[in-house]
Each structure stands twice: as C-alpha cells, then as structure tokens.
Amino acid sequence: MTYLIRVLILLALAVPVAQAGSPYKNLAFALKQQKMTDDLRSHCQIPASVPDEALRQRFLADAPHHDQLLSVVQALKTNDEPRYLSRLAEVHCPEAERQ
C-alpha cells in the first residue's frame, strides 16, 4: 500500500512538470518565428512601420519562392545558424504592395 501511495504522489508531481515544459516550447517556437520575421525584415529592408503580420502575408503571397523560405525554416528548426544565415541571404524579397 505504501508503494502505491508513493507512485501516486510521484505521478501527481510529474504532471505539472510535464505541463510546465509545454509553454516553454511554445515560447521558444514564437521567438524563433519572431527571429525569422526580424531577419527577413532586415534582409529585405522592410521598414519597421510595416506590421509583422503584413510582412508575413507578403512572403506567403510570394508562392514561387516558398521553397527558399522552407529551407530557411528547416535550418532554423535544426539550429544550424551558418546554414540559416546562408539560406536567408538567398531569399527573394517580394515587392511591396502598390497602393
């Protein structure tokens, strides 16, 4: 009986620890997205006055060059900084929307 109580206590303590890892992973993912957004903004010399979402939509609308972006994403996911920077330098910068 004592053994069962110890196991239940350990399981009860393990659940919050496992859940605590989840927000950290989400935060890391969001920061990586922001890193890529910031790097694309810098690479393509897009002014800070252009909102992040408009910048993302500009790249998403540039379908012929999605493969370039996917190679940048893959390098970022694997934390391969030299490859990330190399692939980022090759990204085609989409034209700004005409108004």
Give an account of the 3D structure.
With 99 residues, the chain is mostly helical. It is globular and about 30 Å long. Helix 3 packs antiparallel against helix 4. The chain contains 4 helices and no strands.
Brief characterization of the structure:
The chain has 99 residues and is mainly α. The protein contains 4 helices and no strands. It has helices spanning 2-43, 52-60, 66-77, 81-89.
Index terms:
99 residues; globular; mainly alpha
User: Helical percent range?
Assistant: over 70%
What sort of overall outline do the alpha carbons produce when their principal axes are compared? globular
Instruction: Provide mean pLDDT, rounded.
Output: 76
- Uncertain regions: pLDDT < 50 for 5+ in a row? 13-20
Structural class: mainly alpha
- Quaternary structure state of the chains depicted: single chain
Beta strands, count:
0
Number of helices: 4
List the SSEs and their pairings.
Blueprint: H1 2-43, H2 52-60, H3 66-77, H4 81-89
Helix pairs in contact: 3-4
